[in-house]
């Protein structure tokens, strides 16, 4: 008999979810060509393994990702999936980006379309993808709170916001979790954001735990990105930065080998080991990558292991910022 997949609870007010979640973005957008059938099969494999937390966004593939998830959930018990949806990012017909809209009327409009595309009567966790500087966070959270009261949303989350915004939002309605980038080479939340979330009882869903594949152990210096892959604009994947970052991966590989684990498993397990209030999201697009990632949920890192990882990949060792400068400037969490 297989053991049940481990679980964690998102903050003081959030749901119980699998200790690892599946991020669906790459199945529709931003990482070059993807195989829709394989994406659906990967979601099925995750659900069958006991993964419950499924993360999407209404702007991933301009709605395609939600439709893919709807197809994947057909014939499945809806309560076995905790569906997290981000909203607010504006796209154009060419796939470009044109800002954010978190006005209350827009919040409810986005939610109506997401419910229809997902084919469900509720969204488990609903969150703005980014802070809209033109709209007070109190107004945005207040609008989602009305959706909670109406039964269309069960929990409120946030994404990439700073400590001050977390406090203002929590004063309006309990926040289940903050979705934010956190990995061995993206540790900015440790200074203020993570302590504030813990003080307020807000969980963390960590995305980018493999830094978009960079620290997965599968990346190589000569890999050529295909299609409209936004990593072509990422400073960490460019020139000398890439060379430096891949040297960190090799140092991490040495530690992983002592655990009979892969680099990816070790990097994911490190994030999970930073606290029971943290749920790593893995962006696996294929079943083999999913199988590798899920093994991290049962990989135990001892204090000695964590010290060795810290020595291999020091907190400030990464070369290049996690986003290009214009996108970094767009993040409330970086202010």
UniProtKB/TrEMBL annotation:
One of its GO terms (cellular component) is cytoplasm. The keyword Oxidoreductase applies. One of its GO terms (molecular function) is oxidoreductase activity. Pfam families: Aldo_ket_red (PF00248). Keywords: Oxidoreductase. The keyword Oxidoreductase applies. Residues 20-312 form the NADP-dependent oxidoreductase domain. This is Aryl-alcohol dehydrogenase-like predicted oxidoreductase.
